[in-house]
Amino acid sequence: MLKKCIGAAVLVTSLSWAAVAQDAKTVISNSSEAMGAGNLKTIEYSAIGADFAFGQSMNPNSLWPKFIDKTYTRTINFETPASRVSRVRIQGEYPQHGGGGQPLIGEQTQNQVIVVNAGTPWVQQLEIWMTPYGFLRAAAANNATVKPQSVGGKKYNVVTFTGQNKAKVNGYINEQKMVERVETWIDNNVLGDMLFDATYSDYKDFAGLKFPSRIMQTQGGYPILDLAVLDVKPNAPANIQAPQAQGGGGGQPAPATSQKLADGVFLILPAYAAMAVDFKDYIVVIEGPQSEERASAIITEAKRVIPNKPIKYVINTHHHFDHSGGLRTFVAEGATIVTHESNKPYYERIFSAPHTLNPDKLAQAKKKPVFETMTDKKVMTDGNHVIELYLLQGNFHNDGLIVAYLPKEKILLEADSFNPPAQANAPPGAVINLNNVNLLDSIQRLKLDVQTLIPVHYPADARKVTMAELMRAIGKGN
Q1: Domains of the chain with CATH codes
Q2: Rounded to two decimals, what is the model's pTM?
Q3: Is 331 within 8 Å of 367 (Cβ atoms)?
């Protein structure tokens, strides 16, 4: 009798799952039909709007910096699958406010091509599968489920499938059977399991296809793309070819090397550059940039040139993701983060975020970060070496931007205030970068005797960078 009951339970469960699967298929099919996408193979749409520099805000509580998209055209082939984007963008904020390559002088054309193959990262594929029509295709092909849900008083059928990164992909289909929102989670080395969200509104009819006239994407809680759609061409020609350099992976980062700048002071290359300073009982590393891979390489090289000592401190120039992306690795190593006081609450919050999609060394070590903060100035010394930290007041790149000055060696490490050109004798640009001017003004105001500059964005030829280059960049040199 017990076996019969178990068998009946399994049968009921199987039938229930089959019913759910059928419901999901029906919801997907009905939505596709309502949007006129039953025979949609390709699409091309044009728009105007804005894109935003992810992870490059002026301070931890502000939006990502904005750029205006004068033109924006995306072509998608859902069957290949492939995507091509071309846009012309201009500076969006005056004065410049944050990072992301500001100031942008004149017009900049950007092109991105994605042709999906076995090695294409899932986060790139999402540019296709998070569109309303791409989502319906992906959901139909990936055993999606569905459940009713109310959000803000509106009723939705929420269709869900599991992405290649093992995160859920949810599509919110409204009562008009339009895909109104698609969300998923992707790994970010700073923010962890990060919400990636796309909303679609104001659907209009374009040659029989219902298409949203407003598209908004967010990452990290702030917009990364905001478009007003002007024209849509269903089943437009879409012969999208992969560029020759396209590959499945980015390759391994270049191994770390070092240069001895002075007794106990080492420059670690390639860019992003860092410095290691030999204190009496420990090592101080200045800058923990980019990623776990780069931070690990810096840590290994610092311990090679300064053996048998722990890394006790890592100095963080500012919170931009390309300059803070390796901090978690230093915390796992046991280092204390030295940063501007405005960053501490932000770092405490994001360091506690889960990293389940791609557990890093800190997620495995389960250590809590320790901070030492500063306002305008902080001095670190062991009685021999001295590191003076200064806030760059009035800069246009970051409210908490710190430079590190070694007075005995007359060395100044700085990030993003002056990024040297490829050639040492390059003439100044057509427009002077205000952050270059701010750096020089700050050096003079603080009466720092700088003979060697260490830009974190170090030139590829690994040359020594002097004040003469900075002066030339702002039109005051020969």
Answers
A1: 27-234 (2.50.20), 257-473 (3.60.15.10)
A2: 0.92
A3: yes
